[in-house]
Amino acid sequence: MQLPESQVAVLEAASADEATSVDALARTTDLPPETVTGAAFELAEEGLVAIEERVDETISLTDEGTTYADEGLPEVRLYEAALEAGADDDPVSMGQVIGASGLEGPQVDIALSNYARKGYGSIDSGEITADPDADPGADAEANALETLSDTDDAPVDTVDVDAETLEQLDRRGLLERTESTVREVTLSELGVTELMAGIETAETIGQVTPDLLTSGEWEDVEFAEYNVEADAERVEGGRVHILRQTAERVKDVLVGMGFQEMEGPHVDADFWINDCLFMPQDHPARTHWDRFALEHPTHIDDLPDDLVERVERAHREGVGDDGEGYRSPWDEEFARALALRGHTTSLSARYLAGHEIGEIEPPARYFSVEKVYRNDTLDPTHLLEFFQIEGWVMAEDLSVRDLMGTFEEFYAQFGITDIEFKPHYNPYTEPSFELFGTHPTTGELVEIGNSGIFREEMLEPLGVECDVMAWGLALERLLMLMYGFEDIRDIHGTLCDLELLRETEVTY
Ligand SMILES: N[C@@H](Cc1ccccc1)C(=O)O
């Protein structure tokens, strides 16, 4: 009998005495597993082999599971700290024990919710007790984590952990189960007979090529049959980048909070980027090594004359009766120079000046989520460009409370409720605050933005008569707090972690 080459190879590699897996056959025949599967199905149809199928389950620890395998389960760490503090004699204050345990962020809640369930002790009105008879060494979950940390993707029936504990770890999100279909092939009696009688290899064509078509040869050759059941290589579809997805979510949240979106140029005159913000022309951030200047064209054509005059006066003389300017040179030519914007506060200046959509009446709220460019040194938290979440609110009598309340409301939408503020300095705001959040895995404080209330010296020349509070927040830093990655280069650019980008889910 005649058979295609791959089928002959599989038939010769299979055995009548024991079932051989597709993977093993692939290794012996040096064919891809999907080709072996296809050939095996063909052979089965001819009655030359039998195929048995089963579903194998393998398990491995998630990142969180691995962390606990290394550092100990949060509830065990809490128990150890409680013992240390003498909570086996008398109840001790929770704050003290948590502090001593070194547990941080979400791990505290995890520890508390498992502590009593597992009999480590009790927690009551801010105090904790430890059961002296509890034995962390006999903690089934802790022991299972240790067992599993030594094996990766182990078939579930080979690991020495009982089903109930596995179920519990699964529920806690500490392990991952993966199912795969295993097919095993055995030679049938007919297969053995045919093999002994001798089998010839028939040429079959797996793929139509341009050559076959142009030469007309395709009319004479024999084509291999399609097997739609063969396992194929996994193809990853494209998807929207998580940064882009999060930007969309930020926009939705801000629109929900009553904000309207600003638009404007990535390349802009220094006038809009700096001078309108009462940034002195000799400010270090305005030197050539801190900005990306444009070579062609080098200067903007058009600036509103009256505004230029008012901005220049504010810089030279200050604003109001006892105002003070910088008393340093101010040059319109310098202000006309073009550069990639280092912040999107240039858009705020354009909108506040009435330059984009005419005069804006209070109360008003505007935002943008757009790229900005800075000549920073690349490191885990800095790239040459990032997305800034710019925003401002114009209203009568705004205070720092309004500013902080707005941030609390905004960040809470992303599950971030521990924002901290630090006094800061910007030439264009007074007071000014930097914002910080806590990194969910490292526990470090991460700077996430800069904010303040715009000064008279900025607002008066722009023709704004009431208060304006404003900010610029980094979208990438928000992502860090949301998804816990530590290096911005994991999500951006040539070094990015494709697995992370494929698997991170942005939920709405
Ligand atoms: N422009 C500031 C952010 C900011 C905007 C508006 C007011 C205060 C601060 C920055 O890039 O850091």
From TrEMBL:
Details of cofactor binding: Binds 2 magnesium ions per tetramer.
GO biological process: phenylalanyl-tRNA aminoacylation
Residues noted as binding Mg(2+) in the record, renumbered to the chain: E430
tRNA processing in keyword set: no
The UniProt record lists the keyword Zinc: no
GO molecular function: ATP binding; magnesium ion binding; phenylalanine-tRNA ligase activity; tRNA binding
EC number: 6.1.1.20
Subcellular location per the Swiss-Prot or TrEMBL entry: Cytoplasm
Cofactor: Mg(2+)
Signal peptide: none
Residue span(s) of domain Aminoacyl-transfer RNA synthetases class-II family profile: 250-503
Pfam family of the protein (one): tRNA-synt_2d
Annotated residues for binding of L-phenylalanine: T345, Q388, I389, E390, Y428, F454
GO cellular component: cytoplasm
NCBIfam families, sorted: pheS, PRK04172.1
Annotated HAMAP family: Phe_tRNA_synth_alpha2
Similarity-based family: Belongs to the class-II aminoacyl-tRNA synthetase family. Phe-tRNA synthetase alpha subunit type 2 subfamily.
Cross-referenced PANTHER family: PHENYLALANINE--TRNA LIGASE ALPHA SUBUNIT, PHENYLALANYL-TRNA SYNTHETASE
Protein name per UniProt: Phenylalanine--tRNA ligase alpha subunit
Natural source organism: Natrarchaeobius chitinivorans
Organism classification: Archaea, Methanobacteriati, Methanobacteriota, Stenosarchaea group, Halobacteria
Gene field: pheS
